[in-house]
Write a structure and sequence with these properties.
heterodimer; A: 247 residues; alpha+beta; Alpha-Beta Plaits; two-stranded antiparallel sheet; globular; B: 404 residues; mainly alpha; Formate dehydrogenase/DMSO reductase fold; 70% helix
Chain lengths: 247, 404
């Protein structure tokens, strides 16, 4: 089983709800964002790009790409960053030494360092939020805790706290659930019958900076509909009514 | 002699003060978090990593001098072997301290041994650094043993020890280069950073290490040896100066060999990198080239170099290579790898800095890194340690021949 995410850029309205829900759900400290959404080509979000009357706005959400050939995992000296059986790249906060080599290696800028103690920061601001329980994968590796210690690296976990012990999800990752445009899809890349596999096969998809050889597991459906391999696919009623399901 | 002892005591006090200030600032950093530094998510390594790289390069010098003296039997270098070996040991320990300063969670460092990722270049760097410390300790012991009371007048032992030193040089010489090669792989293997991803980086690291390492040893000799001993063994110093000059020439050549193909490719990425190199960080780039270049000329044409001149040239190399080590980081981190072609232009995806300061952007494409005051104070711990160790060793042991 390898979980992956598909993001339909035609449906993304750049509202940044996914980024905000992720920040709240995972108790991210100030200035830390596991998920970012920006307007492609523009210095300012929601401002059009182009010239001579040919303007357009396209958004690009970027979080951890859960690479199959993850440079962050390869450079981590302690094995704190690792790939689990479901193909997710996770960080064991008890092992991370805060060397930040993974941040230098990651081409997507998604890894975030705790420059100060998040717990103290929340005390100062009086603002408490986030999923409250610790998650230890296989009962050993601390892959989620509400207040990560200062001096460790954190990032998107595909909401590992929502994953059952057998690797299935009853509740989808927060960004998927919160997306008002239903632009995000989540499922098993290894299952040819999964919704995500179907999307990847039939849509014009791309991955970010594949030239780095990272083999990301976040796929983007191109925002240019005319390029769709199967133009009729988007009109199928089930896709528009019951998206995001894991078969 | 009294004057020299006074200088050693002053150096010991200065070194101890630097260590104390550095340790206090480090404790402050551990309590307050690394927010006290100028590093942020888009610029993850700064002064500490630059220092780590720099002191590793500097640590090569002593082992090179040790090896040259015994493998090629250069008698006029042998009086300086003890200083060289202790200089190497102090530098490699300083580099270890510098990398620990850079860790966000140094208390987890034991996991490097408990659950190592053997594919990580950083893991191998720790291994080679540890081995290099052992090599340096062995060199120090070998060079000091003949001076012990037991062996001081034992001619047979001294000859046997010299042979042991010669054999040991077969380990020390490759170790001096290997420690720099392995360390440089931390950068050279990262294919997402164009500034680092080059097979030339490990080769250039060797040239830089020879240049700064030999210069550091020359400087130590100039500072610690009396004038007559320095003049008496000027042929040995001149040999080191010429070797350092050759290493500087190789370093400068390789610096431009890296840049020419970059300019030739003329891609948006390479143009951005060259803009950073020649405009944003232009003064630093030219300093890292010109300072060693001036030193190279002094080393080569100096002929009977005076003690002061050779020391000044060595200082120029040390400053130049330190800047070079920082320049390994500055353009690299300000070339964000997630760039995409949008409407015929290269568009960079911003990175969240990781802290919030009112009035400052949270998402950035460029980070104007300049070490903060606490960072500078933490950063003086490694050089303070070197000064302290050298002065302390100078007071504890007889580092130079008897007539001193």
């Amino acid at each position: 089983m390898r979980y992956c995410m598909v993001i339909d850029l035609d449906k993304c309205i750049g509202c940044q709800t996914c980024a905000v829900i992720c920040k709240m759900h995972h108790a991210q400290p100030q200035g830390t964002w596991w998920n970012r959404v920006f307007t492609q080509g523009s210095d300012y979000h929601q401002s059009a790009v182009g010239s001579d009357g040919a303007y357009k706005i396209e958004y690009l959400p970027v979080s951890c790409q859960m690479c199959d050939n993850a440079p962050c995992e390869r450079v981590c000296p302690t094995g704190a960053t690792y790939k689990n059986e479901e193909g997710m790249i996770l960080v064991d906060y008890n092992r991370c030494i805060g060397c930040r080599t993974c941040m230098a290696a990651c081409p997507y800028g998604v890894r975030q360092f705790n420059w100060k103690d998040p717990a103290k920061e929340k005390e100062e601001t009086g603002y408490a939020y986030g999923y409250p329980f610790d998650v230890k994968e296989k009962g050993k590796r601390l892959v989620y805790t509400q207040n990560r210690p200062a001096g460790v690296v954190e990032k998107c976990t595909f909401c590992v706290e929502c994953m059952n012990e057998d690797g299935t999800y009853d509740t989808l990752p927060a960004c998927i659930r919160a997306c008002p445009g239903k632009a995000r899809f989540f499922g098993d890349l290894d299952d040819p019958d999964s919704h995500v596999s179907h999307l990847i096969r039939t849509k014009q998809v791309f991955r970010l900076r594949e030239d780095y050889g990272t083999e990301p597991k976040v796929y983007y459906i191109s925002s240019n509909k005319s390029k769709n391999v199967d133009a009729g696919w988007a009109d199928q009623s089930w896709e528009n009514t019951t998206p995001n399901v894991i078969p | 002699m009294k004057n020299l002892s006074g200088r050693k005591l002053a150096a010991l006090v200065i070194g101890a003060a630097m260590c104390a200030a550095g340790l206090a600032a480090w404790a402050y950093q551990l309590v307050a978090g690394m927010q006290v530094t100028a590093m942020r998510n888009s610029f993850t390594w700064g002064l500490y990593m630059g220092s780590f790289e720099f002191f590793i390069a500097m640590a090569s010098g002593g082992m090179l001098v040790f090896s040259i003296a015994y493998l090629w039997n250069v008698e006029q270098l042998k009086p300086f072997v003890k200083i060289a070996a202790i200089g190497s040991l102090a530098s490699v320990v300083a580099s270890g301290v510098a990398i620990f300063e850079d860790l966000g969670m140094p208390f987890h460092a034991l996991y490097m041994l408990l659950t190592p990722n053997v594919g990580s270049p950083l893991f191998w760097d720790v291994i080679i650094l540890t081995l290099y410390v052992i090599v340096c300790v062995a060199a120090v012991v070998l060079s000091l043993l003949p001076d012990t009371k037991k062996h001081r007048h034992d001619r047979g032992y001294r000859m046997n020890n010299e042979e042991n030193c010669r054999k040991f040089s077969y380990i020390a010489l490759p170790a001096a280069f290997l420690v720099n090669i392995v360390t440089s792989f931390m950068f050279a293997t990262q294919n997402t950073r164009e500034w680092w991803h080059s097979a030339l980086i490990p080769v250039n690291a060797c040239a830089e290490a020879a240049a700064v390492g030999l210069s550091f040893t020359i400087l130590l000799c100039a500072l610690m040896a009396k004038h007559d001993l320095f003049v008496e063994n000027s042929d040995g110093i001149r040999l080191l100066a010429r070797l350092a000059a050759a290493a500087i020439a190789a370093y400068i050549a390789m610096s431009f060999i890296e840049i020419i193909p970059l300019a030739w490719s003329n891609t948006p990425e390479s143009r951005h990198l060259l803009h950073l190199l020649f405009h944003t960080y232009g003064p630093l780039f030219w300093l890292e080239i010109l300072l060693p270049l001036i030193a190279m000329i002094l080393f080569l044409v100096g002929g009977g170099l005076g003690k002061e001149l050779v020391a000044a040239a060595s200082v120029l190399v040390i400053i130049g290579i330190f800047i070079q080590r920082m320049m390994l980081l500055l353009p690299a981190f300000n070339t964000i790898p997630l760039t995409l072609p949008v409407a015929g232009k290269l568009w960079t995806f911003p990175i969240a800095v990781g802290t919030f300061t009112e009035g400052q952007d949270v998402f950035v494409r460029f980070w104007n890194y300049a070490p903060t005051l606490p960072e500078w104070v933490v950063g003086i711990l490694p050089p303070g340690l070197i000064i302290f160790v050298m002065a302390g060793a100078g007071m504890l042991f007889q580092l130079l021949p008897d007539r001193e």
